[in-house]
Amino acid sequence: MRNFGLTDLRLVSPRDGWPNPAADTMSAGAFDAGVVVNVHETLQDALEGVTYLIAATARLRGIEKRVTDAVGAAEAAFGRSGGDGKGIAAVMFGGEKAGLPNEAVALSDLLMTYPVDPDFKSLNLAQAVCVFVHEWGKLNAAENPSNFPSQNQVKPLEIPSMPDANPSTRDDVFRMFEHFEFELERAGYFFPPEKTPLMKDNLRSALIRADWTEQEVQTFRGAIKALAIGRGKARVVRED
Amino acid sequence: MRNFGLTDLRLVSPRDGWPNPAADTMSAGAFDAGVVVNVHETLQDALEGVTYLIAATARLRGIEKRVTDAVGAAEAAFGRSGGDGKGIAAVMFGGEKAGLPNEAVALSDLLMTYPVDPDFKSLNLAQAVCVFVHEWGKLNAAENPSNFPSQNQVKPLEIPSMPDANPSTRDDVFRMFEHFEFELERAGYFFPPEKTPLMKDNLRSALIRADWTEQEVQTFRGAIKALAIGRGKARVVRED
């Protein structure tokens, strides 16, 4: 939750008590970075001030409720909270095994469900939270772009089409790089030595963008080989 | 990954070895449910057969790469993998602290980054994976709707607008429900007793949809009170 800028965590009657040293370790510093935890005896206490409530559940019960996915829930939470008396939206997650009790679900404005595999529904609670907060974080970043400089580098992506020919596998390309670098090494290309890793990364990074087909990898390896042999020949000529 | 239908996990030189009893516990049965783990000494080995590679990173390095978010990465992975010789797309996640080494990033077709708070960037690896697989799972569910019956209940959501008046807090509504149920109890409404919880949940579920303002809660509580007192009076009349 802290990764995506949320800081108000309310625990209802936590099984292992609170504070909890294990949670402290797992939090990776989130408490020092602003996450405030409040522990409540009952759900009612925890809902103090909450004006809009979303319940996460993989079990869509018989009770008639509006159902949405993580995107819809994030939009609803975003629209129903914030400054200027807009209130507080809360998202409620239940224990990993038992889930939320019916009486908690009954209190919700909205059910949120994820497209989990029906044969493997039960999502770890922390991960269920992460899915929601990521959707919320997307809206937050779109609303406040100046706070998220890395997002400026995200460009609309033209989905790379499949090449007509067989795509190369990454291990083929790996071998092609090694071949190329082996010959470059022999040719004294990598200088000074301490810059070798950076020079290799830059070369690989540029070449990988070509999205090689299987055939092209063969062709390029042939070219490397020809250059290497040619250089050998040239040397022989010079040595003459 | 299993929750969203992915089953091919490749580990490169795992710090704590493999098999790992702790991972087994955390997996909640995913290995029995089809997740196949292969351990590799090197990244090159792990990339066998991979034709499209996406690297997850919060640190956008100097190397020139296309950058996308989780949605774009899921679309790219979905478009570049599957049957009919379409190849295998892989998403690569690095250690929580050190992240991916530069030489791994250099091999990627695409960088994936999330809108994390710049002051709290480092996401737990399992959660980073979960964010991606959820986006992938959305595409998968959209492509194969018959496999995801619960998703049929997800309806486009009209974002609930803010009421003009102050919204009620959930604890106010909670107290209103308790008041209502207390009076219904006294009136003998809940019968048979074993159905009480279900009857309460159904009532709460229906009433909560009204999205109460603060004022409306007061009004409704006044109404309950009036009915309760009125009934008292009526009884007195009858007892006369």
TrEMBL record, chains A, B:
Residues 1-133 form the tRNA/rRNA methyltransferase SpoU type domain. GO terms for molecular function: RNA binding; RNA methyltransferase activity. It comes from the Bacteria. Transmembrane segments: none annotated. Pfam families: SpoU_methylase. The keyword GTP-binding does not apply. One of its GO terms (cellular component) is cytosol. One of its GO terms (biological process) is tRNA nucleoside ribose methylation. Keywords: Methyltransferase, S-adenosyl-L-methionine, Transferase. The keyword Ribonucleoprotein does not apply. Signal peptide: none annotated. InterPro entries: Alpha/beta_knot_MTases (IPR029028), RNA_MeTrfase_TrmJ/LasT (IPR004384), SpoU_MeTrfase (IPR001537), tRNA_m1G_MTases_N (IPR029026). Belongs to the class IV-like SAM-binding methyltransferase superfamily. RNA methyltransferase TrmH family. This is tRNA/rRNA methyltransferase SpoU.
